Amino acid sequence: MSFSSLLNLLKQADGDGPDPGSGSKPAPSASTSASLPSRPSQPNSALSDLLAQLDDQPHEPTRSAFDGPRKGLMEPFGPVAAMAAASQRRRASSSSAPDAQDKGKRKLDDTVSKADWSFSRCLPVLTDLLRDDEFVKELKKAEQDSLERRLWARMEKIKADHEAKTKPEREVARITRKPITQEKQNLKQALDEFYKGHVMTSVDGLAARHRSRLVKLGVPGLGEGKAYVKGAIKTREDKEAALKEKERVKRIMGVLEGALEDT
Predict the structure, then answer these.
(1) Residues in Cβ contact with 170 at an 8 Å cutoff, skipping those fewer than 6 apart
(2) How high is the mean pLDDT of the chain?
(3) Proportion of the chain above pLDDT 90, given as a percent
(4) Where are the residues of the annotated region Disordered (predicted)?
């Protein structure tokens, strides 16, 4: 029950009491006066003054014990404010750590030449390039197809010339049923010489031209081209670097050729 409601009840009790100026009460009988103890009567004016004083006093709002600072309470996990500040500092440090790592990685990658990028770093660039229609048109293998047709025609000519030269011997071998081992050796030797002297040279030149054109188109990871220059590999380190470069270029060309097959 609030304090104001208690005051109202006291006022109502005061108003319901007997008025001192209304008249004299009838005198109680002797039996009732003998059985009931006498009560001292309190004046109503004193009660009214007390109520008036209570009404005049300002009432302060009640305050809970939990509203003030909890200095006497022991928090099991430490101060709440300190924990919040520590968690904010941890979040700030964790968010700034990846940024610092990315900046360091970008700075390290900037020192590496674009021609020596790793295959994984080249993939996003290749994906963006393959979305360009003009770039895809430049990748058409018209020059390579024409070269392959010319090489195939020259190899067929060598085979035909060899067949014409050995036709009499083959006829004799068919009649006498004797194998012609020398014929096979001559054909193998001629094909090996043609492959080393013409095919490899043409393919290396074609690879160098394709590399130069792809570098101009913005394809990364194709190396410096030393693997295709005769006499450029001198030391063991150069040989290992050339093999690594060839493997990376092979994977990059595989991605480009696979994209062309899908178009």
Answers:
(1) 180, 183
(2) 68
(3) 4
(4) 1-111
**Cβ neighbours for 175, distance < 8 A, ≥ 6 positions apart:** none
pLDDT class of 145 with cuts at 50, 70, 90: low
Domain containing residue 135: 115-262
Q: What domain count does the chain have? A: 1
Strand residue runs (E) in the chain: none
> Is residue 156 situated within a structural domain?
yes
For residue range 180-234, what is the model confidence (pLDDT) as tens digits?
Answer: 667 676 777 777 787 777 766 776 777 777 788 888 888 998 887 665 566 667 7
The residues near 119 (Cβ < 8 Å, ≥ 6 apart) are 221, 248, 251, 252
Nearest to 77 by CA among 67, 69, 87: 87
Tokens of 87: 């968690």
- The Cα 174–Cα 188 span in angstroms is 21
* Calpha distance 187→166 (Å, rounded): 10
The tokens 């590399």 sit on which residue?
Answer: 211
What φ, ψ does residue 6 adopt, rounded to 5°? -65, -40
Which pTM value belongs to this model?
0.41
- 260 contacts 139 by C-beta, under 8 angstroms: yes
What DSSP assignment string belongs to 14-62?
HHHSPPTTS-PPPPPPHHHHHHSPP-PPPPHHHHHHHHHHHHHSPPPPP
Tell me if 33 is assigned to some domain: no
